[in-house]
Amino acid sequence: GIVAPNAVAAVDGQRQWDRLMAMARLGAITGADGAPGVNRPCLCPLDREARRLLIGWGEAIGLEPSVDALGNLFLRHAGKEPGLPPVLTGSHMDSQPSGGRFDGIWGVLAALEAVQALREAGTATRHPIEIVAWTNEEGGRFAPGCMGSMAYAGHSPPDAWDAVTDGEGIRFGDALAEQLALEADIPRRPLGVVERMRPHAYVEAHIEQGPVLEAEGLDIGVVTGIQGSRWFLVELTGESAHAGTAPLSTRRDAVQDMVRAITALNRLMEDPTDVLRFTVARIEVAPNSSNSVAETVRFTIDFRHPDAAVLTARGDAIESTIRQAVRHCEVAVTERFHALPAEFAPAVVEAVARAAAAQGLAAKRMPSGAFHDAQFMVPLCPSGMVFVPSRRGISHNPAEYSSPEQLAKGARVLAQVLAELAA
Length: 423
Ligand code: GLV
Ligand code: MN
Ligand code: MN
Ligand code: MN
Prior knowledge:
single chain; five-stranded antiparallel β-sheet; 22% strand; hydrolase activity, acting on carbon-nitrogen (but not peptide) bonds, in linear amidines; Amidase_Cbmase; metal-binding
């Protein structure tokens, strides 16, 4: 049955939608065919406004805000036994540069809606519930993504990315310090679980970002795990030359070597089963002038697979493959992100499945192709996720869409799962 019927009934789909649309105004962009998207990179002024908005909404219903050294933002519902480990729920508020209105932010606002519903319904929880907005999940401005959750989980030291720069040369460490100074009025909390207790459980609501739920006419994805990801930065250094005078035989052309490298990588990444994901999508060329031979090229690799053995074997072969393919350039390959495939805890997976069934929603178990902060909670505590359908599976695109009704169903499932986990 429904564990907390009053709380589930108190979930207000319109209120959740109105908050989503208010957030979508912070960084609003227009994509192809007028699609209303969002560009809100982490630690930019718009991200700060979004955080203030969230803090205000949380305080208005009695939640206590706090911020840690990575800028992870928490809103706490104390529960009946505030000394117990908290149930953690949330996602991220930063977006891709050409992103949609739902990726990340919905998981934070669904958590707020679910906790507000629990409080309004007077549903008692023994455990505290903490809503979290993780810093820099996307990794679009500062690579890699998931910095906040990785530091929280002790997967990486908190200063690991201080020297990472964005497209304008701004250091992550400086942008973070500036933000923390602007948020000096918000109580600070210790980072992560080292000095504190482990969370009791973690559950993250997120749009599917793929086509499965819509295609099968389902309401809820019961997420069973997340495939592994590895990110690399490749730097090729040749020599600039005059496009009209330098003979091809004497050139050390970084773009031509990049073509050789990517061609060889495409062979390495061949997969008849079509499970493997391999993406080169960010390329910087210098001097970036049509009549100067390219001196340097920097390009990114995003490689993913659900099988740790494949992730390791092919990922480890990337550098040697590039070195063998390149003819003239110096090669530097840096690994910037390494997330192992993660399997969610049966306790949380079953709680999500039970909640969906009890509410009469059509659900199925599925893995996640996208990575999420939830991946880094798996070693800390029983963890899981709730997916809702994405129209045509579109994400990382202004055309991203899930309907108010679909998102309300997701928030109702989350409310029941939180009530159960925090009981
Ligand atoms: C995160 O946005 C991802 O690329 O999976
Ligand atoms: Mn996301
Ligand atoms: Mn994303
Ligand atoms: Mn993501």
